[in-house]
Write a structure and sequence with these properties.
alpha+beta, 4 helices, 19-stranded antiparallel sheet, single chain, about 45% strand, about 325 residues, 19 strands
Length: about 325
């Protein structure tokens, strides 16, 4: 009995020492990372950093964190941010966000409110911690831009996983439930009636091959860049309006895409009117597109349905026979 007691005491002391080393290492690692970002010109700060969770977890809390990258103009801030990990499995973490946070871009600031936003992230047990898989969920989201045209979601589920046998290819799956965007005022639908408050469907399923894997260097030195995008399906359905995209794009070192996506649209004229009402395209472009797509849909035999290629080549993009101009550059900054 005495030997057992001695063994328990020694084991407890050893485990306490292990936890202390793990917790101290986590603190030093985060402090060093923030210092390195500041040295690069970022705004990277927090009001307090605490590490708790003894004996089985290493739980880190940042109070009032702020991150801002001057090169991209992107910034994020929140009242707090938490990272939880099992002390014996540090490559699997749980990240927890507060109920309100702010994301800023060079164009606008967005306030994001949510209930229970969290992510599970699993990294390979290697020095640079390459990403293996991650899942993010959030409930009761509200996204408020400067004009206060609020978009709400009942729930959001997003997943990413590294494709088996591939070093830098990942599958992405995104599904949003109960999406309620701000409806444009004065919109008149040819299909009759008003749009429902919520989208019935908003989801995407794709694989993306990058020039290198996602690991710690993606935050520290630069983002991996897409080289091939295989869009299995992106689908949005809002009342009688339905839009689907599928296809494959190759992306060169300058971010210029080439390839073809197939666009399928039900009641496409109302989709154009909606895009104009939301400010995504102007009246001139809406008129040009409608004229060209009228011909394309008539040739297909159903004037209300489109099944047409979206072609990317030589830095330009065309929707069927209609040139749309310069293609967007697909570069992550």
């Amino acid at each position: 009995m005495k030997r057992l007691l001695i063994f328990v005491v020694i084991a407890g002391l050893l485990w306490s020492g292990y936890w202390y080393v793990a917790a101290s290492g986590a603190r030093r690692g985060f402090e060093t990372w923030f210092e390195a970002r500041r040295a690069e010109g970022w705004q990277a700060e927090y009001s307090a950093l605490t590490v708790r969770g003894f004996p089985n977890r290493v739980d880190t809390t940042f109070d009032a964190p702020v991150l801002a990258d001057p090169e991209t103009g992107l910034a994020w801030q929140a009242p707090f941010f938490q990272i939880f990990a099992l002390s014996y499995k540090p490559n699997h973490i749980i990240a927890v966000w507060p109920k309100s946070q702010q994301i800023s871009t060079p164009l606008a600031k967005y306030v994001i409110a949510s209930e229970d936003m969290r992510a599970s992230v699993v990294m390979a047990p290697e020095a640079k911690l390459p990403l293996e898989r991650a899942n993010l969920t959030a409930e009761a989201m509200a996204i408020t831009p400067p004009d206060e045209a609020i978009t709400t979601l009942d729930g959001l589920q997003a997943a990413i996983s590294r494709v088996a046998g591939a070093e830098a290819e990942y599958r992405f799956a995104i599904n949003a439930d109960g999406v309620t965007p701000p409806s444009p005022r004065g919109l008149r639908l040819r299909t009759g009636g008003a749009l429902p408050d919520r989208l019935e469907t908003l989801r995407a399923d794709m694989t993306v091959a990058f020039d290198r894997s996602w690991d710690l260097s993606a935050l520290e030195t630069g983002r991996p860049q897409p080289r091939r995008i295989k869009l299995k399906l992106t689908e949005a359905k809002w009342g009688q309006l339905e839009l689907k995209l599928a296809g494959t794009l190759d992306v060169d070192a300058a971010g210029r895409p080439s390839g073809r996506l197939t666009v399928k649209a039900e009641n496409w004229r109302d989709i154009l009117a909606l895009a104009q009402g939301m400010g995504w395209i102007n009246a001139t472009w809406a008129g040009r597109l409608e004229q060209g797509l009228d011909l394309a849909s008539a040739l297909s035999g159903n004037p209300n349905t489109l099944d047409i290629p979206l072609d990317f080549a030589d830095g330009s993009v065309a929707l069927g026979p209609i040139p749309l101009g310069a293609a967007p550059r697909l570069r992550l900054r």
